[in-house]
Structure formats: C-alpha cells, structure tokens
C-alpha cells in the first residue's frame, strides 16, 4: 500500500470534476435538473444561476469525496474487479443494496432539509440525466453515480432556495459569498 502524506484540495476537486466528465455528466446536465426543481418556486430563476449553483456545490469537499468513492466503485464493477458478492450487488444495482443512497444522502445533509427532501424526490422521480444513467444497459454501471448526481442537484437546488430568500431579506452579495466559503466543508 502506498500512501501519500499530503493531498492538495485542488487536486481532489480537479479529480472529482474529471470523474463526472469522464462519466459523461456535465455541469449543465445537473443544472437542468436544478432548473426543473426550482423554477416553480422562483419566477426569475435563470439557467445560469443553476449552473453557478452546481459549480459551487462541486467545490465542497464532502461532495468531491462522494463522487470519487462512488464513481470508483461503479468503474471497478464495470471492469469486474470487485470481489463477490459485492461485484454482483453493485453491477446489478440490487434493490436492497442501499449504500449508494446512503452516501448520496449523507452528502446532501450539509445543505439542510430542502436538500434532503429534494434528494428523496429525485430518487423516486428520475429526471434528466439521472433517468439516462438509471437505464440498465448491461455495459455501464451507474449504481452510485445516479444517486450522487441527485445529491448534487438537490444541494444546488437548496442553495438557490436559501439564497433567493436571503437576497429578498436584503442580505448583500458579500455576505452570501462569505456563507458559500463557510459552507465549503
Ligand atoms: Ca443507485
């Protein structure tokens, strides 16, 4: 086992973003879901707000770690590199295997109850890119990725809901910016 003593956070963020890209998921794909989720509550919502929100969520370490763990397991399952019975549980996306959802839900906890309920909704109503990933075609394994995308979209939706309220309440852009920084755990 080789262990590197210091892993820079920029390296982790870059790797997580690359993982999504390699799996064919763009920030815009996730932003589309955010738009669908938030537009009914926010008349002036623009697509670019959703893209920005997804981008900010991807700055969060907890999310980056969830992406790295989840996609790694999906890829190892595709390559038949896991040991049994885990290999089959993940490759088949076995209905009672809930670790994919546990990781994704855990990553949604940092953005409060709106993120949690939105994640739950997206888990049931597969929307946009999640639906595409959920389609089992026997070649690709997205057991973890679909839930992680749901979690990112849920967090970005919750972030927009809270920011919209804060702006209505007269909070300045600087205060909101500071909040994002504090949130970056
Ligand atoms: Ca799943």
UniProtKB/TrEMBL annotation:
Q: Write out the biased-composition intervals (Acidic residues).
A: 171-185
For region Disordered, the annotated ranges are 165-185
Which residue range or ranges hold the YutG/PgpA domain?
Answer: 29-161
Q: One GO BP annotation here?
A: lipid metabolic process
Q: From the UniProt record, list the coiled-coil ranges.
A: none
| MF-aspect GO terms | phosphatidylglycerophosphatase activity
Q: Which InterPro entries match?
A: PgpA-like_sf, Put_PGPase, YutG/PgpA
Task: Name the chain's protein.
Answer: Phosphatidylglycerophosphatase A
What is the taxonomic lineage of the source species?
A: Bacteria, Bacillati, Bacillota, Bacilli, Bacillales
